[in-house]
What we know:
Elements: H1 2-11, H2 27-30, H3 32-36, E1 46-48, E2 54-56, H4 62-66, E3 73-75, E4 78-80, H5 85-88, H6 96-104, H7 110-115, H8 127-136, E5 151-152, H9 156-169, E6 180-188, H10 193-218, E7 238-246, H11 253-263, E8 268-270, H12 279-287, E9 292-293, E10 311-312, H13 317-332, E11 336-340, E12 354-358, H14 365-377, E13 384-389, H15 403-410, E14 414-419, H16 423-432, E15 441-446, E16 450-451, E17 454-455, H17 460-471, H18 479-499, H19 505-515, E18 541-546, E19 554-559
Helix pairs in contact: 1-8, 1-9, 10-18, 11-12, 18-19
Amino acid sequence: xxxxxxxxxxxxxxxxxxxxxxxxxxxxxxxxxxxxxxxxxxxxxxxxxxxxxxxxxxxxxxxxxxxxxxxxxxxxxxxxxxxxxxxxxxxxxxxxxxxxxxxxxxxxxxxxxxxxxxxxxxxxxxxxxxxxxxxxxxxxxxxxxxxxxxxxxxxxxxxxxxxxxxxxxxxxxxxxxxxxxxxxxxxxxxxxxxxxxxxxxxxxxxxxxxxxxxxxxxxxxxxxxxxxxxxxxxxxxxxxxxxxxxxxxxxxxxxxxxxxxxxxxxxxxxxxxxxxxxxxxxxxxxxxxxxxxxxxxxxxxxxxxxxxxxxxxxxxxxxxxxxxxxxxxxxxxxxxxxxxxxxxxxxxxxxxxxxxxxxxxxxxxxxxxxxxxxxxxxxxxxxxxxxxxxxxxxxxxxxxxxxxxxxxxxxxxxxxxxxxxxxxxxxxxxxxxxxxxxxxxxxxxxxxxxxxxxxxxxxxxxxxxxxxxxxxxxxxxxxxxxxxxxxxxxxxxxxxxxxxxxxxxxxxxxxxxxxxxxxxxxxxxxxxxxxxxxxxxxxxxxxxxxxxxxxxxxxxxxxx
Length: 560
């Protein structure tokens, strides 16, 4: 048995190491070497390469090339093969379905693209051939492996732990059967019926389309395709969506979600809307290693320091916008800074600023008279500069209770800096009560491609996305919410097609990272992209200005 473990460890082309195999029942402990290149005692092992270069394993962990899933992929144009236990101890054979993926759906170097066309037939690895592969760089068919593959010298305990880790990478994931893949979305009872329906209409319309296509292909005769498509049919699954509706306060959400998950396990969670922070939902997803993709929130949960989060967000939300606002506030030396009481105490406050904390919007009302008095005293265009940082907002827009406060501020001769959730109130007041113009000079920090009727650039896919909604009879009632949902569903579909029959959640996330930038962008954000282990898809914020007395927003700059 040990020799088998030794063999598997060796084939792990990017050497891994973990804590003692028999000292813990936690698979994460077994994968320490795989993820970090360190043994159970925190030390590394010597590493050599085909070109004679020497190094240590902590600089060349398995995870860095083969990714957390063990399925590999393409790294800087170099082909990286899968190294899970199932792949290693089976005989290699030519599978045109997987070959199609490797040749045409991943970036490869010319030399790799050529070698992929040669036969993949090889004997299954045994203890001696695996030792040769890992220690000498020779595969089970006697060929020399890529010079990029490290050659490791490992002890017995590290071998055992590594093999346990590789076996865990081959484990079957919940939420998938031979014919169906199950998804869920999360909503709270406090979400407005209009928002809930807008999101679910898009999801259900998309799933109906997917299931019709799957049924059509599965009903074709056996000789349905002379070329590559026939090989994919057995990998298709019907989609099933479950709606998990939360009730009560956030401190009870995790327990509710655990109950839903125990009764109805799913492969991934898509979208979702909850009031306030998504932190409790994110903790549930991370603890269960359940992908939770693109929730509609301005308050993302905390991302673990090791970045091994299973929750992917569109934007950094409040944290990202407020960092940008503080930079602007410091540069412009704001006079008044209104900060939510739950915001950290240490702020880069400009010298001379009056910082006022509040727990509820009503607390700001007492300051309006003071603002009116001070702003009236300013002369020669030296406007009173105010910034408002309400970190306790729920959802993705400002609640209507803010409207009376904003209405008074917008008609004062002040300079006002605000985050993106205030946009809808500003536009509503400007168009319905301000005659198109306002007295305040407004700066807005926003991740969106457009503010008001102004757009960063032409986004043609926005019109294609709206056409899709229209063709399915879905009214556009909450445009950003619906287009974001459409993007999330489309990206999930692209990733599922790449998985073929390998329904690994971690591999699914890795494919999402690769496909995010190429997926149809419906125009809510200027650019959407993910890199390895990145969990925020929109990296840049834009700074917009609505000058006093003007009707059009002006794009000033971009902030990262």
